[in-house]
Amino acid sequence: MRVVVGISGASGAALGREVLRQLGAANVETHLVVTAGGERTIAHELGPDGLAEVRRLATFVHDIDDLGASIASGSFGAEAMAVAPCSMRTLSALAHGFGDNLLTRAGDVMLKERRRLVLLPREAPLTEAHLKSMLMLTRMGAMVAPPVPPFYAKPETIDDMIREMAARVVSWLGVDPGEALTRWQGL
C-alpha cells in the first residue's frame, strides 16, 4: 500500500510524526511532503532534529515545490493520504482546488480520484470560512477529523493521546493500527 503523508504549518507536528511511525510499523510505503510552515512548526515543536527524524520515518520524501513528483498524479496509485496536522490555509486550498504546491496537488489528486483523504485540522475556535471549507471537503469525500483525544482510553500522557489519535488516522487510511488503537469495549 502507498500512502501520502502531508504535514502543514498548524500546531501538532507530533501527530504527523506518529502517523508516519505507525504506517512504517505496518510496512506501508509512505510519501512525505512538508510545507514551509510545517518545517517551521516541526522545528519549534519537535526540536532542531525534528525534521530529520520525520524525514527518516518516511519511505520517500518529496519537495513541496516539486509539482512533477510522482504523488502529483493519479496514475501513481497512492491509495490514501493524511494531512496531519492540517492548517486552515491547506484546508482552504484543498476545498477550493488550489493545487499550488505538492501537498495541495496530492490532496487534489485524492479527491478527484475518489481515494481516501484524511485531514486533521488544528484551529480553535473555528470561523464560518473554516466550517464552510470543512463542509465542502466532506461533501467531496474527504474525512475531516480534528484531532480530539479519545478520553475513554484513559490516556495518561500527551504521548498516549498522540498515539491514540494517530492510530485512528491510520485506521481511517485503511491500515490496521494494531495495538496502538484502544478499541471501545463497552461500559
UniProtKB/TrEMBL annotation:
Gene expressing this chain: ubiX
Residue ranges of domain Flavoprotein in the record: 1-164
Keyword set, alphabetical order: Flavoprotein, FMN, Prenyltransferase, Transferase
Family: Belongs to the UbiX/PAD1 family.
Domain of life of the organism encoding this protein: Bacteria
Alphabetical list of SUPFAM superfamilies matching this protein: Homo-oligomeric flavin-containing Cys decarboxylases, HFCD
Name this polypeptide is given: Flavin prenyltransferase UbiX
Its job: Flavin prenyltransferase that catalyzes the synthesis of the prenylated FMN cofactor (prenyl-FMN) for 4-hydroxy-3-polyprenylbenzoic acid decarboxylase UbiD. The prenyltransferase is metal-independent and links a dimethylallyl moiety from dimethylallyl monophosphate (DMAP) to the flavin N5 and C6 atoms of FMN.
Residues reported to bind FMN: 9-11, 35, 87-90, 122
HAMAP family, per the entry: ubiX_pad
Entry GO MF terms: flavin prenyltransferase activity
NCBIfam families the record matches: PRK06029.1, ubiX_pad
EC number, as in UniProt: 2.5.1.129
Organism: Pleomorphomonas carboxyditropha
Gene3D superfamilies: Flavin prenyltransferase-like
Binding site for dimethylallyl phosphate: 152, 168
Catalysed conversion reaction: dimethylallyl phosphate + FMNH2 = prenylated FMNH2 + phosphate
